[in-house]
Amino acid sequence: NFMLTQPHSVSESPGKTVTISCTRSSGSIASNYVQWYQQRPGSAPTTVIYEDNQRPSGVPDRFSGSIDSSSNSASLTISGLKTEDEADYYCQSYDSSNFWVFGGGTKLTVL
Amino acid sequence: EVQLLESGGGLVQPGGSLRLSCAASGFTFSSYAMSWVRQAPGKGLEWVSAISGSGGSTYYADSVKGRFTISRDNSKNTLYLQMNSLRAEDTAVYYCAKGTIFGVVMSDYFDYWGQGTLVTVSS
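Output (C-alpha cells, whole complex):
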C-alpha cells in the first residue's frame, strides 16, 4: 500500500501564490493520475484538478496542478489568492492494489 | 444540474445495521459508476466502495469488505450502501460521489459529490 502525504496546513495572504504538495510514499507519482479536491467548511468536496493538471469547467485558471517525478510528488498551485479559497485540499491517486487513495488533507488559511 | 442527496444516516449501536441511500438527478444515472466516500470527524477522506453503471461490478475497501454492500436501482436513480456489523470506527459522514464513466476504473475521478449523511456508531 502507498500513502499520499500532504502538509497539515499552509497560510498565505490574499493576492499571493501558494503551493500545496502531495508526496507519494511508494510507486511513481507519474504512473497514475492525481486529482485535487477542495472542501470548504461544512461543505462537500468539489474537484479543482483532475488527471494531474486538468481543470473542470468553472474552476478558475488561478488553480493549476503539476507533477514532479524527482520528488515523487504532485503540487496544487493557487495564484491570486482570494479569501474564498480558504478550505481543505485533498490530493487523490490510485494503483492496482489500492483503488482510490486520498492524502490527509491540507488546511489553507488565507489571511 | 447534477444533484446527489444522501439519507439514512443516524445513531446506531455497535454491531448494528444501517442502509444509506443516495438519490441522484440531473444526469443519466445508469451511465455512470458511483462510489461512497466517508470522512470521520475531523479526519480526511476515505474511499469505501464503488459500483459500475449497471451494478454488475462492485469494489470495496479492505476496511469494510464483508460488512458493507453497495447496490443501485437504476429505475429509481438511487444508490445504496447496506452497512452491517457496524463499529465505532465506521463513524463518519458518508458521501456519495459520481464517476465520469460507466465502469469502475481507477484512473477515473469523482466529478460530483453529495452533501453527506452522518453515521454515528455508539452505545
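The interface with chain A takes residues 35, 37, 44-47, 50, 59, 61, 95, 106-107, 109-111, 113-116 of chain B (CB under 8 Å).
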